[in-house]
Design goal:
The protein has 187 residues and is an alpha/beta fold. It contains nine helices and seven strands.
Amino acid sequence: LRGRGPLALVPGLIRTIAGIATALRVLRRFRPQVVLSTGGYGSFPPSMAARLLRLPLVVFLPDIDPGLAVRVEAQLATRVATATAKASAQLPAWKTVVTGYPVREAFRGTRTSSRTTLGYSQDEHVLLVAGATQGSRALNEVVWEALPSLCEAAVVVHITGEAAIAEALARREALSPKLYDRYQPNP
């Protein structure tokens, strides 16, 4: 709804109302005990439906700055959780708690134990480059352009996305034997 002209506002409102109606049907059928939202425009209709059905609504903000959807949902929410104290300052204090960012047990550990598990020495520099689940073409290009110098400075663990893994492996093959193992692309 935001940032569009007045003519786009009406269809946007209609789609939002339709989304709330759909979410009401799904929630009535599914019968959850609580609804968890992490924000974004697609989360608003189910969040609104949850509150209309008097279901507890928990909003989790993993970012520092809440977007419009999270700010609105925070007003509707039973509880709000944030990853950082800075984020909590922008949300209703009486129902907001700083929980940190949830991490699966498999990813927990000390720096020492993690480096041992991953096979890195304790003093090795490691650079993780990740452009979200699908990777990022622009980010991948920047990494590949600087690859030799990056690999001189650190082991580069590069999450490329499925579409770019073949090119990343080709870039790895083009590295000198000394740098080959220092570039670790993964889809």
